[in-house]
Design brief:
The complex is a heterodimer. Chain A has a domain of 151 residues: Glutathione S-transferase Yfyf (Class Pi), Chain A, domain 2 (Up-down Bundle), CATH 1.20.1050. Helix content of chain A is 57%, strand content 5%. A four-stranded mixed β-sheet of chain A has the order 3-2-4-5. In chain A, α7 crosses α8, α7 crosses α10 and α10 runs parallel beside α12. Chain A starts with 16 loop residues before the first helix and ends with a helix. Chain B is α+β, with helices and mostly antiparallel strands. Helices cover 18% and strands 44% of the residues of chain B. In chain B, the strands form three sheets. Chain B has a 16-stranded antiparallel β-sheet with strand order 5-6-7-8-9-10-11-12-13-14-15-18-19-20-21-22. Chain B has a four-stranded mixed β-sheet with strand order 2-1-4-3, with helices on one face. Chain B has a two-stranded antiparallel sheet with strand order 16-17. In chain B, β5 and β6 form a beta hairpin. Chain B starts with a helix and ends with a strand. The chains are: A mainly alpha, B alpha+beta. At the A-B interface, β1 and α9 of A face β11, α5, β12, β16 and β21 of B. β1 of chain A pairs parallel with β21 of chain B, so a sheet runs across the interface.
């Protein structure tokens, strides 16, 4: 019978009994008569094995893949992403012990229009049925469901409870908003709207890899800058640079107070999502591989030694070799 | 004496009945025949007159173009100056003079700035004028310039796509047959497209033109779950050779963006999402000797396209050499027992293409091809009986395209009974098939160029492995002067797993069908 699956439908199961039933009831009036359908079923007369995929297609799909902003070598090493939004989820997935690879990508690839997103592993037998991507705002839920599936029973319950207690914490919400607004605004301003940093970081990391054409690079730069500007103007009618930096400074001070002498935030023994969120910014600011020309944010952060220690601890303990490479370099840089 | 009333009735009756259509037709036919005969006679007389005087020595003392107010004199001079006898080393005969002038008039016609017909008058200057010689003639060409601006809006319904468009044309802008075309269209599949092009003949030669253009468009590509946004420009030189071949040599620079991915887009399409710039040189050659482009019954078409992108000084983000050839032939099939042309014809078509990856700029390694550079195959305008881009490698539901393809078709066309062979309707029986393959990945090491050659040869071998993916069927063809419409019933005969065959009816509109 004719395979009438349309290309836009989200799922395309191969002819399965329930689907056929649905078709029969919905198209009662134009159902093809039995003999003709039997004739149709004979075609195609011959079916050969599937065509090979092009060379650029990702061949290995048996591992989960987190699509992030990173360099090609960074993607192979699993090095920390240079984008805080991506690094947050990369770190969180490492904390949760999930085995995944990173893939260097750009915002156009993402289902939400912004990286990161997770492409869960698909078994090689079902090449036609690739798993749907998980956007960043659903990665936490995806991990929770995965854990629930893995260890059914009490252990999953306690884990879920801990997650629940963390997110229900009022203080948690307040501190999270410090990061999501104050620190983020200062980061956006400092990176995109301060020309020296734009030239030394955004150009080589975000723009130059996407194209070698000068005109296109100019157009992309302009798009990025105006996007950052509109983002900042969403929160205040004018961009007051001093206020933005001052707010960020205060936010870092409160974060430093919150961490105190603990190893991780909220006195936990293992890093959680909040640690990942803080690390995402502190690592990008402190990473010596990133050539910050206008160092006001980094200088501000370096005043809080416990935040710096927190960043180093995570980089060394959780990113392992990938972090150590950075460290050795950063020492050279400090000389 | 007849009753006046009665006879009056008769008149009304006759008027009411109208003129007998048969009689009317006969009358018109006779009138036409008479006109034709008269015209032919006049032509013959004129021909004889010229024939009799064909060797009469003639010198063209002047050529005047009347009413060409917006056209530059220098531009017209280039066409007609060489004809004027002062610039010739020997005198014309009358026949030669007329031929030369009509060649010039033909050029004017091809420039597409004057209405047809262009009238030609020959006059002899007054013999009393001492500066003339007895053989002198003056030539007058009377033209009517086409309007300089044209503006059109409308709607189109095409291959599963509806669109609205605005089209503006400015003709003869600087008085040298330069034209500016501006197009904007908005549709369901081509979301938006803006295009502007400026074209001018070089050295007043209508067969040698230079074009400069730019475009910005955004097109939905549902067969591979994305939208392609293009911004770019081109420069082209077009010329015609004496053999009837048309050439085009141009440079294209396009910024392509693969964006707006569907939620179920495959990893392969996600991997190709983003920006790339193509900078390429392109050459197209077409030789069309078919009697009708939409419904050929005899003749052939040959076409080749070559593109070189990103290599050496071209730069850009993609580098490849791309070659495509197309051949189509049509022959009338005589039916025993039918005098003259039977209207039955056989057309066969062949297309093939190859994309060869090259090292970009000064790099030493070549990069694999991207989805927007690869070929797509399948659909009602090439391999019928398959969905749009239904052939070739697929990742999930996405057609990824291939680096090598070959496709062929054979159509046997019959005139419809009751409609006849002179109407643009045909019944067709067809079989077509093809393969679309991606370059194989080779595991063997070695020099980069060697690797590409190896994967190319193993992919070529795969092309002949087994039967090609095929479909066969029958249907109706309507050849509109602008496009060809087909409604076919077909069944797939041979498939690769994952390829999207279409069982049943399929409707297609195309300008250039396989």
């Amino acid at each position: 019978m004719p395979q009438d699956a349309d290309a836009t439908s989200e799922e395309r199961p191969y002819p399965s009994p329930p689907k056929i039933q649905v078709r029969q009831t919905s198209r009662q009036w134009f159902t093809t008569p039995q003999p003709i359908r039997r004739l149709f079923d004979k075609f195609p007369l011959r079916t050969y094995p599937v065509n090979e995929l092009p060379q650029r297609s990702p061949q290995n799909r048996e591992r989960h893949a987190l699509w992030v902003f990173t360099t090609n070598t960074g993607a192979q090493l699993g090095a920390p992403s240079f984008n805080p939004g991506c690094l947050k989820w990369q770190a969180y997935m490492i904390f949760k012990g999930i085995d995944f690879v990173t893939i260097s990508s750009n915002n156009h690839a993402s289902p939400t229009g912004a990286l990161p997103f997770l492409l869960p592993a698909s078994s090689p037998k079902l090449l036609g049925e690739a798993a749907l991507p998980v956007p960043s705002n659903r990665i936490e839920r995806w991990i929770r469901e995965k854990e629930k599936n893995q260890h059914a029973g009490t252990s999953a319950l306690t884990k879920q409870n801990s997650a629940m207690s963390e997110s229900s914490d009022m203080r948690y919400e307040a501190y999270m908003s410090l990061l999501n607004y104050r620190v983020r605004n200062a980061y956006l301003y400092s990176l995109y709207l301060s020309p020296p940093n734009f030239a030394s970081i955004v150009l080589p990391l975000y723009i130059n890899p996407s194209t070698s054409n000068t005109l296109t690079r100019l157009a992309l730069s302009h798009q990025l800058r105006s996007a950052a500007e509109t983002e900042l103007l969403k929160q205040s009618p004018i961009i007051d640079v001093e206020a933005i930096y001052r707010d960020c400074d205060r936010a870092m001070e409160s974060l430093s107070e919150l961490l105190g002498d603990d190893e991780f935030f909220f006195g936990k023994g293992t890093p959680e999502l909040f640690d990942a969120s803080v690390f995402a910014y502190t690592h990008v600011l402190l990473d010596e591989d990133l050539d910050w020309q206008h160092t006001r944010l980094r200088d501000g952060l370096e005043q809080y030694s416990n935040l710096v220690e927190h960043q180093k601890r995570i980089a060394e303990d959780w990113f392992g070799a990938r972090g150590v490479r950075k460290e050795s370099k950063s020492r050279e840089g400090l000389k | 004496m007849a009753d006046p009333l009665e006879s009056g009735d008769d008149i009304f009756d006759r008027l009411k009945k109208g003129v007998d259509p048969k009689l009317q037709r006969e009358k018109t036919r006779l009138a036409n025949e008479r006109d034709l005969a008269q015209f032919e006679k006049a032509q013959r007389r004129l021909g004889e007159l010229i024939q009799d005087n064909s060797t009469l020595p003639t010198t063209i003392s002047s050529i005047r173009i009347l009413n060409a107010t917006n056209t530059r004199r220098g531009f017209l001079n280039r066409i007609f100056n060489p004809i004027v006898s002062a610039n010739q080393d020997r005198p014309y005969t009358l026949a030669e003079a007329i031929r030369e002038v009509s060649v010039g008039a033909d050029k004017l016609h091809k420039l597409d700035i004057f209405h047809e017909p262009i009238s030609l008058f020959i006059d002899r200057p007054a013999q009393t004028d001492a500066s003339t010689t007895p053989t002198d003639v003056d030539i007058f060409l009377s033209v009517v310039e086409k309007s300089r601006f044209k503006f059109k809006t409308g709607t189109d319904i095409g291959n599963a796509e509806g669109s609205a468009y605005v089209h503006g044309l400015a003709r003869n802008i600087f008085g040298g047959a330069e034209s500016l075309n501006i197009n904007a269209s908005f549709g369901t599949r081509t979301r938006s497209a803006y295009q502007a092009s400026f074209e001018t003949p070089i050295l007043s030669n209508p067969n040698l033109r230079w074009e400069l253009g730019g475009l910005a468009s955004s097109t939905q590509k549902p067969w591979s779950s994305h939208e392609e946004v293009l911004k770019g420009g081109w420069m082209k030189l077009r010329w015609m050779t004496l053999g009837g071949g048309r050439h085009e040599l141009g440079y294209n620079g396009v910024w392509r963006q693969i964006t707006g991915l569907a939620s179920n887009a495959s990893p392969s399409v996600r991997g190709d999402a983003g920006d790339s710039v193509k900078s390429s040189l392109m050459h197209t050659w077409v030789k069309d000797r078919r009697d009708s482009p939409q419904l050929p019954t005899k003749g052939y078409l040959n076409k080749s396209t070559l593109e070189l992108a990103g290599w050496g000084p071209l730069q850009g983000d993609v580098a490849f050499g791309k070659a495509e050839v197309e051949a189509q032939g049509a022959i009338p099939v005589p039916i025993p027992g039918i005098q003259g042309e039977s209207g039955v014809s056989l057309t066969t078509g062949l297309r093939a293409g190859l994309l060869y990856p090259l090292p970009l700029g000064t790099e030493s390694d070549s990069k694999p091809s991207r989805i927007n550079d690869r070929f797509q195959l399948g659909g009602p305008t090439d391999v019928r009986g398959f969905r749009l881009s239904g052939l070739g490698p697929r990742d999930g539901s996405d057609a990824l395209g291939g680096d090598i393809y070959a496709a062929a078709s054979a159509n046997l066309l019959f005139p419809l009974p009751c409609v006849g062979k002179d109407k643009p309707f045909r019944f067709q029986i067809f079989a077509n098939g093809g393969r679309l393959l991606a370059l194989k990945t080779t595991d063997e090491g070695g020099a980069e160029g060697e690797k590409v050659r190896q994967s190319l040869s193993s992919t070529m071998a795969e092309l002949g492995n087994g039967l090609p993916s095929m479909a066969a069927g029958f249907g109706l063809v309507y050849a509109h002067p602008v496009a060809r419409f087909e409604l076919n019933f077909s069944l797939p005969l041979v498939l690769r797993r994952g390829e999207d065959g279409r069982k049943g009816l399929q409707f297609g509109i195309g300008i250039n069908m396989l």
